[in-house]
Amino acid sequence: MLKKSVVEHTLEAALETGADFAELYVEQTKRNHIAMVNGQVETALGGLDYGAGIRLFCGNRVIYAFVNDTSEENLVRTAREMASTVKGTHLLRLPDWKTRQWQNINPIFVLPDDVEKRKKADYLAAASAAAFAYDPAITQTRTGFLDVTKNVLVANSEGVWAEERRVRSRFTVEAVASSATEKQSGHLGPGGSVGFELFDQINVEDTAREAARIAMTMLGAKPCPAGKMPVVIDNGFGGVIFHEACGHGLEATAVARNASVFAGKLGQQIASPLVTAIDDGTIPNGWGSANMDDEGTPTRRNVLIENGILKTYLVDRMNGRKMGAAVTGSARRENYRFAPTSRMTNTFLAPGDSTPESIIADTPYGLYAKQMGGGSVDPATGAFNFAVLEAYIIRNGQICEPVRGATLIGKGAEVLMQIDKVGNNLKRAQGMCGSISGSIPTDVGQPMIRVKEMTVGGRG
């Protein structure tokens, strides 16, 4: 993406005043998005973004700048301006480049750029038609297809030279069901680090019908009762509970500042012995997968919690310095405008031995949360508040009537200890995660779990 001489001159300029680490991140991203409303194209957008970020360390101090002009003159000038704020004692010389190579974990078979927009639109129109055909009460559909091709270069003063092409594709569908007095919606968004072959892996019409089913089910649901009760959380997007309420608290971004409820607890039991939690950036074609992180470190499988014991945190380079911890291939950023920090990739609870049927049958009364929605969390305390998009009451070991307006309230550390059943039906789902380094694609997942007691908010 840049000549090595340009990279070298930029990093040498960055190190002139004694910084003990310098890094150059270069990125070119091509993005296309088609969106339909009721089977008609609403938007068809495409764009190219290009730029670079320069980062310096001096002890635990960080200086970061980004530019769109990646000419040698501008990069060197920017690096020197950054270096002028540093008065360090290290006069580093660049070592020989150590080019990082790996077997690509995300093979791409059909580049979305090579596919005509009409073919993409045909899939979206078919999904819309399937949702409308599900029931006359479906009054609106929204369908979309996003594809992103990102080329990345990371070079630093330790001699790392790492390049990667990242391709991601995602299909989204929303169905809205209406009655005389209300509206309810269902939404799904499968995707991965794949090309247009995504549409060989999913059936858009079945996905649209499932979104319509959720909308129709919630349209006729009564308000959820409130109180403390057992809660069974289904697989797939149910994993957002762990991601938000616990996962962010295991990122060094919070731990290094002692702003996490899990800080200082390595080796301690922080969860039920049934709980093993993993963040794995190496899952082939996973939505959050990559060959390397945004510091050029190879991604890896990190076991965060094993049988309830906290084993490790997710650690980036700067926070690793502060903590005295090794990096874990977890540094991520939305784009070159953001400095990287520790973030999740594909995070999930490992499957257990219980079947979903046995978990339901062993629950005399409680809430069955089939589809989770959004919410909020405080990483320092783990306190969270999450909406449930699709929920049912469990009575006498059976799933009974649907209820709407359910909210799960609690603290992540307490929920981890309260898990008393873990199913064998692991499933992952795709989402976007926002934090101080921007919005990034992450997988969440889990098998069905049961929390023996949670606070459920509702109006029933």
Automatic annotation (TrEMBL):
InterPro entries: Metalloprtase-TldD/E_C (IPR045569), Metalloprtase-TldD/E_cen_dom (IPR045570), Metalloprtase-TldD/E_N (IPR002510), Peptidase_U62_metallo (IPR051463), TldD (IPR025502), TldD/PmbA_N (IPR035068), TldD/PmbA_sf (IPR036059). GO terms for biological process: proteolysis. Keywords: Hydrolase, Metalloprotease, Protease. GO terms for molecular function: metallopeptidase activity. Residues 22-83 form the Metalloprotease TldD/E N-terminal domain. GO terms for cellular component: cytosol. Residues 112-219 form the Metalloprotease TldD/E central domain. It comes from the Bacteria. The keyword Protease applies. Belongs to the peptidase U62 family. This is TldD protein.
